[in-house]
Amino acid sequence: MTTKALEQSGLFDQPGLFDVAADGPQFEPLGGHVHRTELTDGAWVDVRPGWLTGSDELLHTLLAVVPRRAERRQMYDRVVAVPRLVSFYEQGAALPDPLLAAARAALDDHYRDELREPFTTAGLCCYRDGSDSVAWHGDTIGRGRTEDTMVAILSLGADRPLLLRPRGGGPSMRFAAGHGDLLVMGGSCQRTWEHCIPKTLRPTGTRVSVQFRPCGVR
Ligand SMILES: O=C(O)CCC(=O)C(=O)O
Ligand SMILES: [Fe+2]
């Protein structure tokens, strides 16, 4: 979609976003700036607010260049329609913006010793407004079903909370996923906890989530 078409579609309509840095987009350091929350059963969540600054342009690029399709996804024993738009970049596929390669390199650098393998794939999800969402799930289509792993998420655009709850029930925890923020789910999180992006009735602009995962995790 061209920028003009985006403006006309309303997807470009992001009041409140003004993170256009004079010296261009920049990843702020991770070391010493990532806050870890230990969950139960060896699961954890890392949060680095404001990881990418000057990220308006990346949001617009992704909205413009990423081919998008409506998602159908295996949820437990059923394949269901998920109200959001997605695209997926397999290992080795060219990413739609060099900043995503830079993000992945920074994540590899920071998590190398703990993860012991690189982040290889990138998933993009576009939540057009508050009625787009993803229901409670773990990323258990691949190795996350049986192994500890990591899923790193760079959020762009509208603030939407990511909720986490223990698999099998329990109170949920709310994590902010705002423009330029990094959130990483790690350890056993995909198989012992579930996460979701709930719908909201609040007027909400478009959010794009970029998820980096190791090979075979989905
Ligand atoms: O939108 C997000 O940040 C979460 C996406 C997600 O959980 C998934 O695609 O598996
Ligand atoms: Fe997920």
UniProtKB/TrEMBL annotation:
- An example Gene Ontology molecular-function term: dioxygenase activity
Q: Which GO terms describe its biological process?
A: DNA alkylation repair
The entry's keywords? Dioxygenase, Oxidoreductase
Ranges for the Fe2OG dioxygenase domain? 118-216
Q: Identify the InterPro entries for this entry.
A: AlkB-like (IPR027450), AlkB-like_sf (IPR037151), ALKBH3 (IPR032854), Oxoglu/Fe-dep_dioxygenase_dom (IPR005123)
- Pfam families recorded for this chain? 2OG-FeII_Oxy_2
Q: Which residues cross the membrane?
A: none
**What's the domain of life for this entry?**
Bacteria
Q: Which protein are we looking at?
A: Alpha-ketoglutarate-dependent dioxygenase AlkB
